[in-house]
Amino acid sequence: MYVLANANLQEAEIANEVMSEIAPDNAIGYPPAHQFRAIALMKESELKTREETLDLLQWHLAQAGFRNQEQRLLMWAKLHQAKNDDSSAAEDLEQAGKLNPIHFFALSELELNRNKPMASKRALEKAADAFAKQVE
C-alpha cells in the first residue's frame, strides 16, 4: 500500500525502487509488480529511442500478471510498434478490438500507415458492426 501511495504522490522513484526488489529486471518476481514496472517504464520513457528500455519493458510485460486483458494487449501493441513490428501490433489491436471495439480505430490507422487500405477499411467495418450491435 505504501508503494502505491508513493506512486500516486509522484514519488515514482521510491515506488520503483521497492518494486524492483519484488520484480527484478533479470528474474521472475511478483507478477503484479512486473505489471507496475512495465506501466512505469511505458510512461516515463521515449520508447522509440532506447532499445535497452524496450528489452526491459518486454521482460516485465512477459512476467506481468495482468487481470485486465485489454490493457495487456494495448501495452504489447505499443511495444511492438516501438520495435517496428507492426504486424504483431496489428494482431494485438485486433484482439483488443474484440474486447472493446474502439481499438479497431487504432488498428485502422495502423493499417493505413502500413499502406494497407483494405485492412484499414475492414477494421473500420468491424468497429461499425460492433457499435451497431451495442445500440440495437
What would you say this structure looks like, in words?
By secondary structure, the chain is an all-alpha fold. Helices cover 76% and strands 0% of the residues. It is built from 8 helices and no strands. It has helices spanning 2-8, 12-22, 31-44, 51-63, 69-82, 86-99, 103-113, 117-135. Helix 3 (31-44) packs antiparallel against helix 4 (51-63). The chain is elongated and about 50 Å long.
Task: Summarize this structure briefly.
The protein is 76% helix and 0% strand.
Index terms:
mainly alpha, 76% helix
SSE pattern: HHHHHHHH
The secondary structure category is mainly alpha
Strand content: under 5%
Report the strand count.
Answer: 0
Relative helix content: over 70%
Our measurement of the CA-to-CA distance between the termini, rounded to an integer number of angstroms, reads: 43 Å
What summary fits the major beta sheet? none
C-alpha Rg, in Å?
17 Å
Q: DSSP helix count?
A: 8
Low-confidence stretches: none
General shape:
elongated
Mean pLDDT equals: 87
Strands, helices and their partners?
Layout: H1 2-8, H2 12-22, H3 31-44, H4 51-63, H5 69-82, H6 86-99, H7 103-113, H8 117-135
